[in-house]
């Protein structure tokens, strides 16, 4: 949509650039001094110079010939681009003035840099006319701007900027909306993503840049303030040229962000220093530097196979093409818009990634819930338990009943914790104890449970210790006394919590080395679910058995 | 009968032992019980057994990994396991039976009865013959087998590629495991009927079977009638 608007803008501005007045005019000539005859149509100014020369505080005159080949169809106007204050004469007739030129005892009142004058129709017939300006420029003396005189249909002179502004404001409005939206997004999101904030700033700066650029059409800017606007535009461009590559470097995880930023800043400052006073050139170089920096980052992103890098590359190449074919002002805005569009696109990719992450975390949680429930209904556990149970019931119904009770209790606890992400550590210990009762009936080995230093207010992921306990039962052989002891201890330090779980027994030899089975995967997934990457899990053989350590860091 | 039980649940191992003794009564010369694959395997290396009762999930180890090397041996294997989903696969490897947990005396006895039943059993889903060779076990697709020749306590497998392999199980034991397409045509020959071309009758009423590859095998007098029925 935005691209279409830009296109229309260009089309419109080009079509309206073609003047409706068929005219020729000779180069403007200058003469320092003051003489009322110099306004006359028939004054011979052949000795005047095409260079302004140093006019200092003095009054000087400028003359220019305008030839109408056809009688203009509508009221004629003149657009004058000049620094200073002046009176305007058309064939010797005073048409109007801009500001007040220096008079005795009265300092000059500066005029506006751009001004429009309507020429009475009676004076605008076919043939040769003389525009003469009586000028002073007592401020900004060093600036010797040539005076631009452009005849055209008066209404067009006024209307053309309006059309241009309407499109530019439309674009600026879109950027303002985007800026506000992304600011809100940054403020209200739990994950403070600085790329979002940077993007909001880029949009805001871009809005400000467009407003500053086209403010000249609806504010009378006196020529003394003329450079202030350009200076502001320069610094806005400077900031954008710094932020856009920064944004790309964050988005595409560029390895040397800091170095890149520092180098970029140095280059931009150097450009500013070298080309002071050449405002347009400076802004153009800024955007060139920005473009090159972005290109480097994007090229690197393509090598890293980052998502969206190819889109941004094509965007950058398109801006280069546009800049090559278009008048600078438009080119700048269009290429900036393209870049912002690229960023917006990247944003949608990013949002999509966040959505995917969220979805997969939901999936993980439900998968873990499922795994927890499966613990007690997987055939190996259930059928071995049932087989032992039948045997106990056949042999000694009383103990068989105890066995059944213990199993029911384990099921109860499992049921009550199955949907929790974290449970009180005491409940976990209860679960482990009932599990040991069940396993005692099955394995006919004495299992003993000890715990020390447990803080009852602590919470842990469900079946975490239970899983490690299962592993301990599976991979241990009791010592000669047919006893296996399990000990859980808790420790709190300044920056982490630690659970150690010790299995006191002989370790079985394994046929095949395994990287911790499903059990350890479950433990690690549960830890990640609750503590992201703030945990450490070590499980290894230790003197006298097996030792598992879980550390959970505060930060 | 010399019997080995590999089961890591003490209670279940004792149940198996009790029921096995109840079934075989006087015919048992020894029952060994081990709760891990390693110990069970080393027992097999050093002792001769007639029957193995094997759980497929032992202390988290997958019993399937060693099933190949078990069925390649001279004894019958009965799987006693909770993982019924593994039953079909176990049969393709050539186990005698798959007893699902929880089991009772009746079900286990049914499995034991298969040991002594001569000829075919109900389940014939065996797909491979596991053969021990130079310390390794190799699975041979039974489609590859032309015929099997009994050689006392061993069997010789004659394969389509012209090679021969030796199997530790007797021909009678293999006959219990192999599918219906294998027919006993002689006291020393078990033939895959898919490979049979026609029966050749020689004077003096001696019969032979011509195979598709041109080999000729003898047919036992007592087997001729039954074979003739099947060939048509």
UniProtKB/TrEMBL annotation, chain B:
<dbReference type="Pfam" id="PF04397">
    <property type="entry name" value="LytTR"/>
</dbReference>
<dbReference type="InterPro" id="IPR007492">
    <property type="entry name" value="LytTR_DNA-bd_dom"/>
</dbReference>
<dbReference type="GO" id="GO:0003677">
    <property type="term" value="F:DNA binding"/>
</dbReference>
<dbReference type="GO" id="GO:0000156">
    <property type="term" value="F:phosphorelay response regulator activity"/>
</dbReference>
<feature type="modified residue" description="4-aspartylphosphate">
    <location>
        <position position="55"/>
    </location>
</feature>
<keyword id="KW-0597">Phosphoprotein</keyword>
<dbReference type="InterPro" id="IPR011006">
    <property type="entry name" value="CheY-like_superfamily"/>
</dbReference>
<dbReference type="InterPro" id="IPR001789">
    <property type="entry name" value="Sig_transdc_resp-reg_receiver"/>
</dbReference>
<protein>
    <submittedName>
        <fullName>LytTR family transcriptional regulator</fullName>
    </submittedName>
</protein>
<dbReference type="InterPro" id="IPR046947">
    <property type="entry name" value="LytR-like"/>
</dbReference>
<dbReference type="Pfam" id="PF00072">
    <property type="entry name" value="Response_reg"/>
</dbReference>
<feature type="domain" description="HTH LytTR-type">
    <location>
        <begin position="129"/>
        <end position="232"/>
    </location>
</feature>
<feature type="domain" description="Response regulatory">
    <location>
        <begin position="2"/>
        <end position="116"/>
    </location>
</feature>
């Amino acid at each position: 949509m935005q691209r279409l608007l830009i296109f229309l803008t260009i089309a419109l501005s080009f079509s309206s650039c073609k003047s409706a007045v068929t005219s020729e005019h000779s180069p403007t000539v200058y003469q320092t001094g003051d003489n009322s005859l110099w306004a006359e149509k028939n004054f011979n100014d052949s000795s005047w110079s095409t260079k302004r020369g140093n006019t200092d505080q003095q009054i000087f005159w400028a003359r220019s010939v305008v030839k109408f080949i056809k009688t203009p169809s509508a009221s004629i106007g003149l657009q004058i681009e000049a620094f200073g204050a002046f009176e305007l004469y058309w064939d010797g007739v005073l048409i109007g003035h801009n500001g007040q030129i220096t008079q005795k005892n009265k300092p000059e009142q500066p005029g506006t840099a751009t001004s429009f004058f309507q020429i009475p129709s009676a004076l605008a017939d076919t043939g040769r006319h003389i525009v003469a300006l009586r000028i002073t420029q007592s401020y900004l003396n060093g600036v010797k701007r040539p005076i631009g005189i452009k005849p055209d249909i008066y209404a067009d002179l006024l209307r053309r900027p309006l059309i241009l502004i309407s499109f530019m404001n439309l674009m600026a409005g879109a950027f303002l909306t985007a800026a506000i939206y992304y600011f809100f997004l940054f403020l209200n999101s739990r994950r403070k993503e600085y790329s979002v904030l940077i993007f909001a700033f880029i949009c805001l700066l871009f809005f400000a840049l467009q407003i500053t650029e086209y403010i000249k059409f609806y504010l009378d800017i006196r020529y003394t303030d003329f450079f202030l606007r350009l200076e502001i535009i320069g610094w806005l461009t400077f900031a954008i040229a710094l932020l856009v590559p920064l944004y790309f470097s964050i988005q595409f995880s560029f390895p040397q962000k800091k170095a890149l930023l520092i180098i970029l800043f140095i280059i931009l400052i150097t450009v500013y220093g070298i080309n002071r006073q050449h405002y347009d050139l400076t802004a153009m170089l800024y955007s060139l530097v920005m473009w090159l920096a972005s290109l480097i980052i994007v090229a690197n992103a393509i090598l890293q196979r980052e998502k969206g890098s190819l889109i941004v590359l094509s965007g950058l190449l398109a801006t280069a093409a546009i800049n090559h074919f278009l008048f600078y002002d438009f080119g700048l805005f269009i290429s900036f818009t393209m870049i912002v569009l690229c960023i917006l696109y990247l944003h949608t990719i990013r949002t999509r990634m966040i959505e995917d992450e969220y979805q997969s975390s939901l999936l993980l949680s439900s998968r873990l819930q499922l795994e927890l429930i499966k613990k007690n209904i997987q055939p190996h556990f259930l059928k071995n338990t049932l087989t032992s149970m039948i045997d106990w019931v056949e042999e000694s119904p009383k103990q068989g009943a105890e066995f059944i009770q213990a199993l029911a209790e384990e099921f109860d606890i499992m049921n009550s914790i199955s949907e929790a992400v974290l449970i009180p550590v005491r409940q976990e210990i209860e679960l482990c104890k009932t599990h040991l009762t069940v396993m005692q009936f099955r394995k006919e080995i004495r299992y003993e449970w000890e715990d020390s230093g447990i803080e009852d207010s602590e919470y842990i992921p469900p079946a975490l210790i239970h899983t490690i306990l299962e592993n301990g039962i599976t991979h241990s052989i009791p010592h000669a006394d047919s006893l296996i002891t399990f000990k859980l201890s808790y420790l709190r330090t300044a920056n982490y919590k630690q659970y150690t779980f010790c299995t006191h027994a002989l370790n079985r030899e394994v046929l095949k080395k395994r990287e911790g089975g499903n059990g350890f995967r479950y433990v690690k997934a549960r830890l990640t679910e609750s503590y992201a990457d703030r945990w450490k899990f070590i499980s290894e053989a230790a003197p006298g058995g097996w030792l598992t350590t879980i550390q959970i860091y505060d930060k | 009968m010399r019997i080995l039980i590999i089961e890591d649940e003490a209670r279940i191992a004792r149940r198996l032992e009790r029921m096995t003794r109840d079934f075989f009564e006087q015919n048992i010369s020894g029952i060994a019980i081990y709760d891990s694959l390693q110990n069970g395997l080393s027992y097999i290396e050093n002792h001769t057994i007639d029957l193995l009762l094997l759980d497929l999930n032992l202390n988290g180890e997958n019993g399937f990994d060693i099933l190949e090397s078990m069925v390649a041996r001279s004894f019958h294997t009965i799987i006693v396991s909770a993982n019924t989903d593994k039953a079909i696969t176990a049969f393709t490897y050539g186990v005698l039976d798959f007893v699902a947990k929880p089991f009772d005396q009746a079900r286990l006895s049914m499995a034991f009865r298969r040991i002594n039943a001569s000829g075919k059993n109900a389940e014939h889903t065996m797909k491979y013959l596991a053969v021990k060779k130079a310390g390794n076990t190799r699975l041979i697709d039974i489609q590859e087998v032309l015929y099997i020749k009994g050689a006392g306590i061993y069997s010789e497998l004659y394969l389509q590629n012209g090679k021969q392999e030796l199997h530790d199980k007797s021909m009678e034991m293999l006959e219990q495991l192999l599918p219906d397409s294998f027919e006993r045509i002689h006291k020393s020959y078990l033939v895959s009927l898919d490979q049979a071309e026609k029966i050749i009758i020689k004077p003096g009423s001696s019969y032979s079977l011509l195979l598709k590859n041109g080999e000729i095998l003898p047919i036992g007098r007592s087997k001729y009638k039954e074979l003739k029925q099947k060939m048509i």
